[in-house]
Amino acid sequence: xxxxxxxxxxxxxxxxxxxxxxxxxxxxxxxxxxxxxxxxxxxxxxxxxxxxxxxxxxxxxxxxxxxxxxxxxxxxxxxxxxxxxxxxxxxxxxxxxxxxxxxxxxxxxxxxxxxxxxxxxxxxxxxxxxxxxxxxxxxxxxxxxxxxxxxxxxxxxxxxxxxxxxxxxxxxxxxxxxxxxxxxxxxxxxxxxxxxxxxxxxxxxxxxxxxxxxxxxxxxxxxxxxxxxxxxxxxxxxxxxxxxxxxxxxxxxxxxx
Length: 257
What we know:
Blueprint: E1 4-5, E2 12-13, E3 16-19, H1 40-52, E4 57-59, H2 67-74, E5 82-87, E6 89-92, E7 95-98, H3 102-116, E8 121-127, H4 132-138, H5 141-150, E9 154-160, H6 164-173, E10 176-180, H7 189-198, E11 201-205, H8 216-224, E12 231-235, H9 239-256
Parallel strand pairs: 3-4, 3-12, 4-5, 5-8, 8-9, 9-10, 10-11, 11-12
Antiparallel strand pairs: 1-2, 6-7
């Protein structure tokens, strides 16, 4: 797959990114069916295949169980991937908890760097609890991420948003926004449109409706008609699904050009 510029970040991303919830956590998730977390050999094979197919974006988070730790151990060509991680949410003892303080944010980023075995993280997002504007206005997380970027520990900062207002704020004030956009959820279209105007980076979550999409082709075509949809994050632990998703993405992008 041909890489695309992620807004003005200077980062090139594959149009399809690999989400890694399923390699680290299978509790309290919203997928159509239950699944077993794959062993190290299966994860290595999946990463090798993704790299072979041209996928260079991998999405993780502390909230994804031991996903970051497994990426640090198993990801091939580790320093060549574009790693997206998050701060603010931790999943432990079967439940999520949130902390957006400056101290927690710094420790969270440092922990992610250690687990991932990286000197820097390409894209670090705020993992919202749904109270996006409260996080922005009343916590230190966004300012702390900007400081960590200045220190060279992060290349680009942003938020995984849940409201239009916060998405627009993020587009105006940060480098990257991650938004939900699919055939059944178009509320955040104004965010994509404003991002296109300002040449800001956009990552799409739930483009396939967390596995509930009726047609992968129709769903991806719908998303990629938006110029600001730079990379769609799709989670899978099935090699056949990964091959199919990449093939469909390439066909869709060819038809959109």
